[in-house]
Structures are given as structure tokens and as C-alpha cells.
Amino acid sequence: MNDASAHHNDGQALRAAAARALLPVIDAQGSLSALDDSAVLPRDRALFRALCYGVCRSLPRLEALAGELLRSPFKTRDRDVQALLLVGIYQLLYMRIPAHAAVGETAGAARLLGKAWATRVLNGCLRRLQREQSALQAKVDRDPCVALLHPAWLLKALRQAWPDDWREIAIANNAPGPMTLRINRRRVSREVYRERLLESGLESRICEFAPDGLTLETPCDVNALPGFADGEVSVQDEAAQLAVELLGPALAPRPGARVLDACCAPGGKTAHLLEAFDVDLTALDSDAQRLTRVTDTLDRLGLTARVERGDATQLEGWETDRFDAVLLDAPCSGSGVIRRHPDIKRLRRAEDIPALATLQGQLLDRLWQLLVPGGTLLYATCSIFPEENADQIKAFLARTPDARATTPADLAWGRPAGDGRQLLPREAGHDGFFYARLEKARA
Ligand SMILES: C[S@@+](CC[C@H](N)C(=O)[O-])C[C@H]1O[C@@H](n2cnc3c(N)ncnc32)[C@H](O)[C@@H]1O
In a designed cystine with 62, which of 86, 155, 391, 415 is the match (CB 3.0 to 4.6 A)? Predict the structure, then answer.
């Protein structure tokens, strides 16, 4: 085989692998976090990920165009060919891959799915898209769900929650989030680390709100970050870094304070708390697999915590008045981080929101009992829905007489939302997030 045809085969293999990997996500049966790139050559893995994330981000438009291009939909058993068609459409619309390669290698990949018959269909569809792209796109984009790349329920929920901002939110959700770093302040200052990045050819800007944060101008592999293996730096969005700012007044003056990070995995905030404060930290999560990531992260950063598995709505036998502070970074819809997890648009359903709100309420109630009088609980979500945020805290305060909100009113970031603070996702800036700080009355 000569070089050109080997390259051709690799290109087909990459596209077939993307179609296979995407199928469960398209069918709302699996998540992008489980992407398996083992069949893809190491040098093609970045492109593979870009393809899978990109297709997922733009599914409504790709599917609407596929509907226009096909005379009749593929049979259920040929959903992999449908996925391949979406991969092809995505390349023509969004990627700087020469069109002949995008069409030829996508159509050729049908053979690798064991469906050589589909090569002609795919070739025909993709060539037609090349010829008629503007007219077809204008036609499908008349539907706002297609133009804004969001399912109808989600657009409706955004519109209801943020009548003045929903369009900007949807647009921000569609742009990949920037890569933001958290500098380990125990090891190195942000200024010095920024210089080191520059020496490695990586430009960054100082985060507007998070004192340990630097945002890279161009994302890179973590292993290209100087000092990553030695624990000098971690990847964490700017909004997520603000938990430490809000807990500062409770923890900074009290070395040895007992802290519970109740939903800790994969450990981003656990590690940040330990970098910032000398505290005695218990890191709890119900998911054993995710907890292994917490211990890996703590090992890499040279930090120590008591890592425990448990359901924070139960915690039988845990005595009350046990912790000076609790961080509840609650399981949520993830509606503030759609740009990082575009599969949320396919996997979430409207009916998930009340179920999540119920779980969050149970977590709040149980964890409150563990707090000492005078202690602080920081409630956080990466959601932008009031049901999980301001409404949740309002209901909690109404049923909890010894709780009062102490979320500062004069923060430089976000906007007031009931008794908490809401950050909306910002293009090239932070994710969507919510925080509410609560204090337990002294006995
Ligand atoms: C938003 S994530 C936490 C992110 C983490 N705090 C960080 O900064 O890296 C929510 C976590 O809650 C955990 N979780 C969900 N239900 C739980 C429960 N009942 N008890 C304890 N943890 C739970 C999930 O396994 C998940 O790891």
C-alpha cells in the first residue's frame, strides 16, 4: 500500500470510528464522556474528538439537513450510516477539511461499517449539499431550534428563566468553552506560571474574577502544560474556582477547620480548597469510579483528604454538628456547562429538572444537620435553571429556621439571583454557575 492510500484508509477509519462512537449519543443512550478512541491512530485523536464534539454540538442542524438530503430515512438497523452522514455534513459545514476529502473519505467509510452499498447514497447526499448548502441551510434554519442548535424544551426553559438573555445563552452554549487553568498557589504564583507558559509557547490571559485562574488563548493537551505532572496546575473553569473565594471568610482564619466536600468527584473543588486553606477535609461522593479520579488528582497535587464513598442524602451514623463548613456542589442538569458537554442537549429531558431539584433539596436537608452552629454551607450548581438554584434556596430557607443566606451582595461577578449569585455562560469567559452561601445560627 502506498502512502496516499494508507492515508486514505486512515481517514475512512477515523470517520467510521466517529460514526460508531456517536451513535449511542445520537440515540440518547450514551454520553460523550465515554468516547472510545482506542481504534483511532494517536495522531488522529484530536480530530476524532473535534468531530464527535462538533457533531454533537450541531445535531439539530445536521439532522434537519440530512432529512432534506435523503429521499427516505435510513432503516433503524442502518442508524450507523445516518451517523456517518451527519459526520460528513458536519465536515462540509464547519471544518477546514478539503471538501473532496470530507466527501470521499466519509462515503468510503461506509465500507468499514460493513455497508458498502451506502457509499453511493452518502456520496450523492454530500455532493448535493456542496452544491446547495446555502439554500438548504437557510431553509432548515427557519426553525429556531435548528438555527440555535437546541431542543425545543431547552429553548423554552431558557426563555422562561432568562427572557432577556436566552438567545445569548444559547449562542454561548454553542461555542466550545475556553481552557482555563488553576495555578496551585502552594507551589507557584500565577504571574510566574504565566511566564513559564509563555516560555513553552502558550499564551494566556489573567482571569477577570478568579485569583488563581489563567485562560489559555488556545487549548492544548494537559501534558503540554509545564509542571502539570508535578501538581503545579490543574484545568478548571473560572466559575468553578469561585467556590474558594466564597468559603474564604469561613476557612482562611481557621486553620484545621473541619470541612466536608459532599459531592466531590472528580475533585476539582476539593483540590482547590486544599491548595487555598489548611483544613481537615473529608471528600465524599456516591460514585466509586469517579472517586478514583479524586485520589489521582490529590496524589498528583500532593494534597491529602479523607476520601469516602457514601450517599449524602443518607449518611447513617454520622453525628450532627460535625463540620465547620460544607460544600455541596450538587448533582444538577449541567445547563450552565452545555458548551463543554454538548451531549446534555440530547440526553437531558424537561422532566429531569424537578427530579434533580428534589434530590438537591434532600442533600441540603441532610447536610445541614452535619454543620456546627455558626458553620457555613456553600451550595453550588453548574445549572442556570432557577428550580435548581434561587428557587431551591428560597424553599430551603423557608423550611429551615436556623439558616440564613450570607451570599455577598457586592461581588464583581455574576448577578443576584434570590439569595444567591448566578453566573451565565459567557463566550470565551466562564461557565454558567450558581452559588448560595448559608450560615447556621449559633445555638
Ligand atoms: C457536580 S458533580 C461534583 C463536581 C466536583 N465538586 C468538582 O468540583 O470536581 C456532582 C457529584 O455529585 C455526586 N453525587 C450525586 N448524588 C450523590 C449523593 N446522593 N451523594 C453523594 N454524592 C452524590 C456525583 O457522583 C457527582 O460526582
Answer: 86
Nearest CA to ligand 1 atom 13: 263
Tell me whether residue 157 is in a domain. Answer: no
Q: Pick the residue whose CA is nearest to atom 12 on ligand 1.
A: 263
Residues 204, 217: Cα–Cα separation, whole Å = 5
**Residue 173 within a domain:** no
User: Is the residue at 372 inside a domain?
Assistant: yes
Asked if residues 219 and 225 have their Cβ atoms less than 8 Å apart, the reply is: no
357 and 435 both lie in a single domain:
yes
pTM of the model: 0.95
CA 53 to CA 43: how far, in whole Å? Answer: 17
What digits encode the pLDDT tens for the residues 220-241? 999 999 999 999 999 999 999 9
pLDDT at 18: 97
Tell me what percent of the residues of the chain surpass a pLDDT of 70: 98
* Averaged confidence pLDDT in the chain: 96
pLDDT tens by residue, 346-375: 999 999 999 999 999 999 999 999 999 999
pLDDT band at 141 (very low <50, low <70, confident <90, very high): very high
Is residue 28 within 8 Å of 81, Cβ to Cβ?
no
**Full domain range(s) for residue 94:** 3-143
Pocket test for ligand 1, best of 260, 264, 289 (most atoms within 8 A of CB): 264
Flag whether 283 is marked binding. no
Calculate the CA 441 to chain-centre distance: 35
Q: CATH code at 227?
A: 3.30.70.1170
Q: Kindly state whether residue 149 falls inside one of the protein's structural domains.
A: no
Which residues of 274-419 form beta strands (DSSP E)?
A: 280-285, 306-309, 323-329, 371-381, 403-405, 415-417
Annotated ligand binding at 329? The verdict is yes
CATH no. for residue 53?
1.10.940.10
How far is it, in rounded angstroms, from Cα 132 to Cα 307? 57
- What is the pLDDT, as a whole number, of residue 38? 87
- Confidence at residue 36, expressed as pLDDT on a 0 to 100 scale: 86
- Residue 156: pLDDT over 80: yes
Residues near ligand 1 (Cβ within 6 A): 240, 263-269, 284-287, 290, 311-313, 329, 331
CA 287 to chain centre: 18
pLDDT higher than threshold 90 for residue 7: no
- Residue-wise pLDDT for 107-122, tens only, equals 999 999 999 999 999 9
Q: Are 141 and 61 in contact (CB under 8 A)?
A: yes
Q: Is 414 left (phi over 0), alpha (psi -120 to 50) or beta?
A: left
